[in-house]
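Predicting holo structure, magnesium ion bound.
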Amino acid sequence: MNDSTGLTSAGSEPEERVIEAALRPRNLDDFVGQSRVRQQLSLVLEAAKIRERTADHVLLSGPPGLGKTTLSMIIAAEMNAPLRISSGPAIQHAGDLAAILSSLSEGEVLFLDEIHRMSRPAEEMLYMAMEDFRVDIIVGKGAGATAIPLELPPFTLVGATTRAGLLPGPLRDRFGFTGHLEFYAVKELELVLRRSAMMLDLSVTSAAFTEIAGRSRGTPRIANRLLRRVRDWALVHKLEEIDAKAAAAALDMYEVDARGLDRLDRGVLEALCTKFGGGPVGLSTLAIAVGEETETVETVAEPYLVREGLMGRTPRGRIAMPGAWEHLGLAMPKDAIFASAQTYENDED
Ligand SMILES: Nc1ncnc2c1ncn2[C@@H]1O[C@H](COP(=O)(O)OP(=O)(O)OP(=O)(O)O)[C@@H](O)[C@H]1O
Ligand SMILES: [Mg+2]
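Done. Tokens:
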């Protein structure tokens, strides 16, 4: 069984990839939400089709599990083009990239996941390939080295990154279109779940979809994962239909609460409110209080707590926001920093 941390993390596990592939929407119309990105992308692709050219290079940025890989597959499908998949970490030498580029066929879509993790020399080769559809292959070493220019067939690069800010400007500028994916609204996640339930042949009530969607942290990958756990629960309990009560009971058992907080998130909040009176408290002290590594608290629990407005970051440390006490069903002490002072500011370090 997964522990609760795994259940609510936005990254994917290797065994999960197969089922994810099966649940992926295959065209833009089936892709839920992100209406602006979808409209803009659809325009880029339509225009390319009319001009009978390959589409402009596309950069997709946004947190894990929001649909970047899915969109790249949709782009290839909509353009009726083959898709080649690689990733930044797999391209450590310029030669790795040259090998991929020189074997592309005309119009092919090249998807580079985690493009911010490519090596510098490969990145520079990519600039030229994106702009002029040409690369220089270096043959030999030292003084005898020569550059052999190689023409490339026109192709569309789709780059994906969780950290658009880490991309060097020259690379970012060479994309004709950048789509930034946002977290999904509960209503949108309900649609994702409805579609998945149909594909998994499950009978689920509307209220149950709402219940699961509300616990999914704005992330389709998490929504689909929670749905599968609820399905297991219903199977064992021999339920024909999954209703809101069953969904809530199942997810409570997996320790994913009504707002999508898991055991670690709640532990951090509870420590902050009850052991440190709402803070401010340093991150490492907070981590010790919950028996976790500082890094785990910072990268796994904190981003969602801050996003949900339950925890704040100040120059003097972490503080609980009023919603934290409310969520835990506790009374906020009168001397809690948030109640007494105006020192709160959204600090970025
Ligand atoms: N808009 C959407 N509509 C329906 N399902 C979606 C949507 N976006 C994502 N999904 C589902 O969520 C899962 C994860 O999506 P995907 O792999 O595309 O995310 P990602 O952004 O590439 O994540 P990562 O950054 O971890 O690579 C897929 O199984 C897909 O079916
Ligand atoms: Mg991906």
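The domain at 263-340 is CATH 1.10.10.10 (Arc Repressor Mutant, subunit A).
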